[in-house]
Amino acid sequence: MANITVTLYWDMDLRKWTTTLGGTTETDPIQGLVQGDIVKFAVRFVQTGVAVVLAAPVFTASGIKADNDFTGSYLIQLSAPVLSDTTLYTFTVNPLNSAQLNTFLQTYRNTWCALEIYDSVNGILTTPLELQIMPGYSLSGTPTDNVAGVIVVAAGKTVTFPQSLTFPSALGTNGFQLTTDGAGALTWATGTNAPGGSTTQVQYNNAGSFAGITGATTNGTALTLVAPVLGAATATSLNGAAFNTGTSTGSKYISFGGGSAYINLEGSNVGYGYIDTQGGFGGYISTGGSSSHNGGGGNIITAGNGTARGGSIDTTPNGATAGGSINTSYGGSISTNNGGGSINTNSSGGYINTSSSGGSINTSSGGGSIDTGGTGSIGFGNAGTRTTFGGVATTARFINLPDASGTILLEDNTATLTNKSIAATQLTGNVAVARIATALTTPGAIGGTTASTGAFTTLTGTSTLTLGVAGPTGTAGTVVLKNATNAYTTTIVPSVVTGSRQLNLPLITGTDTVAVLGLTQTFTGNKTFSGTVSCGSTLAVTEGTTLTGGLTVGGTSFSPLITTNYTPFNFAGSGVGTLTNAPDSGNPTKWILISDNGVSRYIPTWETPP
Questions:
Q1: pTM of this prediction?
Q2: Are 1 and 94 in contact, with CB atoms under 8 Å apart?
């Protein structure tokens, strides 16, 4: 047998097998293949002279058939190819043989076959490529009797014996095994793996053979030991641990002597160990100390080992109405120090009882937690005068206690806040309806719909009262004032400034109104404007208005000095006005002085109309 690689190019444009990539010469039939060879068909699919990558091709209907037998069965069906070098699809046939090919070569005495590749996804169907496969005569045939021993080996398989072995001529008895005498002679012998003893007996090695243990039986689930001997111990003790089985109603216990003693219930990777104290009233695990030895109680340790998790003490009810309890009465303790395990009473809420002399729950050194999941609670004090912490939230909540000693202020008590500040965002919910009247003089409800009838008296001296809350960047806080009927509001909105500003109010000697933009208002008092006063449209004055000082009129050289908003009456007469006798005597008797950009000029006036 040989390893052969056949390089092929299928030109999808020319629809033929070519000898080179991008060439046009058609490939000749492939010869020299022998039944049993390992053949690799390395195929590139070519389009426009370039090898391409096919999109998720499926070649399940590709293989080798007899030449010109288009509807016949496959002689060899190709496995999925291996894609390498980005565009090279290698179909490996190992070996180039099958029962169908062997029958074809022996029956028809024909060696010509055809390779055809079909990709059902990309629509590729090659034309048949002729292959000549010569039969491998060493792969099949009936052995003759002139050979000392003949082994018929399946096609493509190899059997090697490093030693010379002589096989028995008979077929042997059912259940017998082929054994050797150590010198190369093989014989049939009874198997040595038959179980010993009786059914259900546990097996052991009895001088190289199986034998049964009469005092150890099993039904496949439970192991039963009859009068076992455990090392040097007796049935009632084991290396210093005493077993008291008692009577059916008496006490039963395991007792350990002095020194370190423990019960290890380490489970496997998938199992676990446990101590079961179920009974009519439930047993208990006692780690009490001994007054005669001045010793303290022992510990129940469920620590993990390395990366393994620790065990747990489970008091879950098993078909009962209530779970067991862990009792530390008279001063025991449950410690989750140094790494903080947890004490969990989830799912119907068992309880942790430290009654009678008041034990403690300690989560120091690593910060364990007390978890009363579900509707559990934490209570303090005796029955009738207990204080219980509880509550149900709509989402996870966390309450941080301050780093100080003092009294917690509750919604319905009359405690007084001393030197405490409450942020504006906190004046909601229960805090808003708390008894804050002790700090304010009848102020009315903050944020309520009824106007306040009291006064804030907490500001004295040069204290500052800040109203309004700054909004997002680019906006300003506001102050909203309600009218007397509470139907409308007036909102004071400061402009957005780049720095802090101060608005000074004048000395107010009586009730007055603030002047604002955009409203028609009348100034009843004397007002002095030191800067330029601009009038956008009409400066309205009455006949009684007095203008003290000079009036400066701006504009250009051709701007009118005075423009009327009405049509003056026409007093034109027949006479011709003259100024030849002014200003010494007669009309005009008065002249109006104007400043023409620094030059004094005069406008004549007459006492009588024309």
A1: 0.29
A2: no
Q: Which residues, in sequence order, are bridge partners of residue 116?
A: 63
- Longest Cα–Cα distance of the chain, Å, equals 176
What is the fold of 3-138?
Answer: Immunoglobulin-like (2.60.40)
Q: At 177, list the tokens.
A: 């095994």
Say if residue 16 is exposed, middle or buried (CB neighbours under 10 Å; 0-12, 13-18, 19+).
middle
Name the residue among 309, 260, 316, 263 with its Cα closest to residue 285: 263
* DSSP 3-state of 83: strand
Residue type at 549 in one-letter notation: G
Q: Where are the domains of the chain?
A: 3-138, 334-371
CA–CA gap between residue 344 and residue 359 (Å, rounded): 18
**DSSP string over 461-484:** TT-----S---STT----EEEE-T
- pLDDT score at 456: 47
- The 10s digit of each residue's pLDDT in 337-365 is 666 566 666 555 566 666 655 556 766 65
Give the C-alpha separation, 168 to 179, whole Å.
Answer: 10
- Model confidence over 116-129: pLDDT tens digits? 999 999 999 999 99
Quick check: 156 and 97 in contact, CB under 8 A?
Answer: yes
320: closest CA among 357, 348, 361?
348
pLDDT of residue 581 exceeding 60: no
Burial label for 440, CB within 10 Å (0-12, 13-18, 19+), is: middle
CA-nearest of 283, 279, 348 to 316 is 348
The b-or-e profile of 30-47 (16+ CB within 10 A means b, else e) is beebbbbbebbbbbbbbe
Contact criterion met (CB below 8 Å) for 490 and 476: no
Q: Which of 333, 328, 324, 274 is nearest to 302 (CA)?
A: 274
Tell me if 234 sits within 8 A of 241, measured CB to CB.
no
pLDDT for 288: 61
CB 302 within 8 A of CB 309: no
* Higher pLDDT, residue 95 or 461: 95
Q: How far apart are CA 610 and CA 592, in angstroms?
A: 18
Bigger pLDDT: 42 vs 375: 42
Q: Is the Cα dihedral 191, 196, 202, 203 positive or negative?
A: negative
Residue 547 has pLDDT above 80, yes or no: no
